[in-house]
Specification:
The protein has 492 residues and is an alpha+beta fold. It folds into 2 domains: 337 residues, 3-Layer(bba) Sandwich (FAD/NAD(P)-binding domain); 115 residues, no CATH class. The protein is built from 13 helices and 20 strands. Strands 1, 2, 3, 4, 5, 6, 7 and 20 form an 8-stranded mixed β-sheet that branches. Helix 3 packs parallel to helix 12. The two termini are 37 Å apart. The N terminus is likely disordered.
Amino acid sequence: MDRRSFLKQSGIAALAGAAAPMIFSCDAGGRGSACNGLTVKSSYKTKVLVVGGGPAGVCAAIAAARLGVDTMLVEQGGCLGGMATRGLVAPFMTSFDASGEVQVIRGLFDEIVCRMVGLGGAIHPKDVRAGTAFSAWITAGHDHVTPFDAETLKLVLDRLCAEAGVKVLCHATFAGPVLKGEAVKGAVVLTRKGLEQIDAEMVIDATGDGDVAAAAGVPSEFGNPELGKVQPSTLFFRINCVDSKRLEADVMAHIHEFRKVDGVSYRALHWWVEKAEEAGEWDIARKSVNIYRGVREDEWAVNCTRIANVDATDSESLTAGEAEGRRQVRELMDFFHKYVPGCEKAALMSSASTLGIRESRHIAGEYRLTAEDLLTCQVPEDSILLASNSVDVHGRTGAMGTEYKTISGGNWYGVPYRSILPQGVDNLLIPGRCLSATSDAAGAVRVMPPCMAMGEAAGVAAALAAKGGTTPKRLEAGDLLAQLKKQNVFLG
């Protein structure tokens, strides 16, 4: 489906209410306009506009600004980091190859980690091995994860953006794209001052859900169209005041019981989950608890809540999902206090302020990444990053099941530049979990280190295109890869 057909059929539904058609018609010439009685003020002009300040977006903005290009980053929340901060998703999954010997995701990701390590807010992945409390005692695909503190990350990202000269605007929600022919030339955002227009030469959609691309009419798939569903969401939370030695001793005494049956994992604390189920005190679609040791000895990140059928593009669905997530957090805290050794006095530090979304839109791009590409370790010539993250699809084999496939035939695969270039429009890049990929392939590269690497590549591409007077689609991939290599990006 082409862009015009999409817009006609959708009624330009990406914007709220009757103002939608008018906002889409705001011109790119720098003038303000009236949209059904709502004034859109032309407030900002920049070379590169990044929409979304999560892991992909913040790396995109820093990378672009460091190449001397005026860069603006807009974020709907009150801090940068997205899933890593507001979502409390931790730890970072592996940034190493399948052998565990080579760190393949470096560049800005590694710089951010090292900054946090220097502040005592992270443990470098080289010092973390699989099968330990830091990896929830999981071995497959969990070697060299990165424990980190979300508050430290917020500070580090603020500092890096300031040092690079990125103009950051928080509390700014994307409302619609500014279109000029087939090119995206900015965005309208809703701020505390009202609707404001940002004119830009290049736009990077780092919303995670492909909001800019979808609103510009780029075709997409939602979730897995064959199954008619998305992966379940999670509300992460953090606990402290844990006697970690007792907790770890309890797990080690049962670690020989870890197993997977019909796609359902029986791992940490499944022996206590069974007792809670027998007592009628467990109503969560899990048979075990993924609990990751944090940087401080008594702190743990908990990835156990499971909320099905959340549509991340729908506010009502998100609201209901977050309420259900908080209910499950309370149930888990009661579980920890009653059943788990060392957690009798555990305290809830915080639950995430936003759901951890595994899947929503998959934008149609110049190349559609497949699970076969990843599992067979394909490395296209225009690969902008190398990774080894496993295909991880929750909910595939029933409410409690997870399909988990590690790569074979090599130590890494590549993500091509073409997969972050959307079809139909230009001057737009789509790094992050909304990249052009099948549902299964996105299940591997949706995790934060690959998203950060995609973001860095998108920022470099946007900056090079702006400086060279070209477009991202006409940019020579060789020039992009050469610049990435200069920035400590490992490409083999």
